[in-house]
Amino acid sequence: MRVLYRGEGELIGWHDPDEHREWVLKNKSKELKDKRMSAREAVSKFIHDGDFLAIGGFGHVRVPMILVYEIIRQRKRNLTLEASPGVHDSDLLIGSGCVSKVEAAYCFGHELRGLSPASRRTVESGRCKVVAENSNAGFQWRFLAAMMGIPFIPARVLLGTETLKRSSAIVVECPFSGKPITLLPACYPDVALIHVSRCDIYGNAQIDGILIQDLELSRASRRLIISTEEIVDEERIRSEPWRTVIPYFLVDAVVEAPYGSHPCQMPFQYYFDEEHIGEWLTLSRTDEGIEEYLNKYIYGVEDFSEYLQLIGGEEKLQYLREVEALKRSADFPWARRSKK
Amino acid sequence: MKGEYSNTELLICIAARMLENGKSVFVGTGLPMIAAMLAMRTHAPDLLLVFEAGGIGPKIPALPISVGDSRTFYRAVAASSMHDIMSLCQSGYIDYGFLGAAQIDAFGNINTTVIGDWEQPKVRLPGSGGGNDVGSLCHKTIIIMRQDKRRFVEKLDFIATAGYLNGPGGRERSGLPKSSGPYRVVTQLGVFGFDDDTKRMVLISRHPGVSVEEIKANSCFEIMVPERVEVSEPPTVEERSILREIDPKGIVISK
What we know:
The structure holds 2 protein chains of 2 kinds.
Chain A: E1 3-6, H1 17-27, H2 39-46, E2 52-55, H3 65-73, E3 79-83, H4 88-95, E4 99-104, H5 117-124, E5 129-133, H6 136-148, E6 152-155, H7 162-165, E7 170-173, E8 180-185, E9 191-196, E10 198-199, E11 205-206, H8 214-220, E12 223-228, H9 234-239, E13 244-246, E14 253-256, H10 274-283, H11 287-299, H12 304-310, H13 313-324, H14 333-339
Parallel strand pairs in A: 2-3, 2-9, 3-4, 4-5, 9-12, 12-14
Antiparallel strand pairs in A: 1-7, 6-8, 7-8, 10-11, 11-13
Helix pairs in contact in A: 2-3, 4-5, 6-8, 10-11
Chain B: H1 7-18, E1 24-26, H2 31-41, E2 48-50, E3 55-56, E4 78-79, H3 82-90, E5 96-99, E6 103-104, E7 110-111, E8 114-116, E9 121-124, H4 131-137, E10 140-144, H5 170-174, E11 182-186, E12 190-194, E13 201-206, H6 212-217, E14 230-231, H7 237-246
């Protein structure tokens, strides 16, 4: 194949497929064993300074915030982050100084809420660097290639743009059509974190609603920590096996975490805590504000259940459940602020 | 404010009217979302909405905050995955793509990534997100954005998503799908298309109370102006009342 163009972005998370097979053979046990552990134990055991980290869900929908907080609490450093998309999860990780490199498809923004002051400031001041650009499809297809155990996958995105120039993709002349086509390199994160609706003690997991890219990511990542709203009996999984999105042998740790996506949304369970996200967006306009937030909600609390009390306890959680179930309408404090 | 409606309401209504019943549209956060919801409640009840995170054909009950919000797959025909949606785009199932942008040039290329230098950004924006995918793969792309000289620029700070690149044949030479590309640009001042021969932006209609001179003065590149320029239809009372139902707290329409 004739190479027409080479992106200049840093190639992150690529392994030779044979090397990866070898790694899987040595490291991934198919033994059915109880993988439950605390967030603290899972993060300290499987996430190391300098790791390449990927997060499932959609930036602020079904994201493992319990694990994100724990990474910040353990002051992990020099992580490389997959941001596709990164929203509240990446804003906190980048803003708190855990991340030094990002491959960005979508990052530094909060969708309808506007831009993210914390992570934007971090990247604009050079404390964290975007080392490659991508698109959402481009990133997710990198995981698809990894999941398939192939070195790259062709796609018709990025072509002609500076997103391509700053990506790690290559454009070649397609041997079938003769047209230029993008080759997206496979991407194997060191660790992925995925928040699920329920799983058993072995890690067989179900996800209610859209999968986003978690089917591909769970199979692409070398290590996988799942946090789960609920631990269910193995029998429940085996009685409806077509609902299993992530089978146990992909999973390294299971963290039981009711409300583990708070303040982000968990489909069919609880809505975004806009009041809390609004507090972060206001405080994170300054470095002092970030410190205040982290001290109050992360460094200053023992664990996630203490945090849940701090954000308003059962009353707040009940409200978020009712909003998600469309029994109450949501309030958007940041929208009022932006009008001033 | 022009008359009794806001610029945002005007933008949304005009964009909504472009969407045809029985077609599919890839919807982004914010204005595109609300425009697609308005189209479904007016002339296009069978408009198929798809969202990049996996929602297909929802009956949206309340304005989603995110394109992954559970409202994007509420009573949907499918709650699928990003791979599925992006593959549908790539294989030709998605008719319209709806995008926002921070900057646009005469050929409809857009920037959503960075203001200033990429290595040392003055303002870091979110990046492509699904934008590059929409602009590459949907049959017709509609861009909704505010217009002024900082946004309608001669040269983008960063080409995040391909429009017609450097002119006729640019997309095809780059390997992008045949007959795809920017279809319309809707701003608070007017509606624009792209000239068949040059692929440069051309004025189609000006909004009520906006002059052609004002439109030209709010662009750094030359906008082609045909002999006949229509005046856009303002939002109707019905459209405005539906908008207030869709966004009762005014989180998008009051911006």
